[in-house]
Write a structure and sequence with these properties.
By secondary structure, this protein is α/β, with parallel strands linked by helices. Helices cover 41% and strands 19% of the residues. The protein has a six-stranded parallel sheet, with helices on both faces. It is globular. The termini are close together.
Length: 189
């Protein structure tokens, strides 16, 4: 499977490369774009400020440019938190998308979004301050109306970025469960 994997607002850190290596070890080809052009951050607040300084349109432009050379093969879009929102935007706009793997993040969905049974898997902490229950319910229903085939995995007690071993949110057990389900999901595509 060809995967484009987007980083969180912390930037392209070692944990993202380790995740890409894990996917490669499972037999996938993985591209890891750097939307922040080498900048990384020690806190989510610093990363969010940088994200906001760059702007949504520019970040999506960078993401499209990074994915475009690979999209003719049919991509699985994937991302961590903010990177999940980027992946979601691209997957919903790419009629050749093979799947969408969201780790810790979602995005709003345009009213006219339409896909043909796009397989989607979401892994999210429960509760998650960035993905509250009401939001996730609305997101799930809107993705279904858009035509996506959505599977949601919740991890009670885990922190927001629970798959990142370099952050305080890390939860080894939840991370292993998420990776096992993610790799299983990718194997079905």
């Amino acid at each position: 499977m060809n995967i484009v994997l987007f980083h969180s607002t912390y930037g392209l850190r070692p944990a993202v490369h380790a995740a890409a290596d894990r996917l490669r070890d499972a037999g996938h080809e993985v591209v890891v774009p750097d939307l922040f052009e080498g900048r990384t951050f020690g806190t989510v607040e610093e990363g969010m400020a940088h994200r906001d300084d760059i702007g949504r349109d520019e970040l999506l432009r960078r993401a499209v440019l990074a994915a475009a050379p690979h999209s003719d093969r049919g991509l699985v879009y994937a991302g961590f938190s903010f990177g999940g929102s980027v992946a979601q935007h691209l997957a919903l706009a790419d009629d050749k998308a093979r799947g969408l793997l969201l780790l810790h993040g979602t995005a709003d969905i345009a009213d006219d979004a339409a896909v043909d049974e796009l397989p989607v898997q979401l892994h999210v902490a429960d509760p998650d301050p960035f993905e509250p229950h009401d939001w996730l319910t609305t997101w799930y229903l809107r993705m279904g109306r858009a035509g996506a085939d959505v599977e949601v995995h919740r991890y009670p007690g885990a922190g927001h970025l629970f798959t990142d071993p370099d952050l305080p949110d890390y939860d080894a057990e939840a991370a292993e469960r998420a990776w096992k389900a993610s790799l299983g999901f990718l194997d079905t595509l």
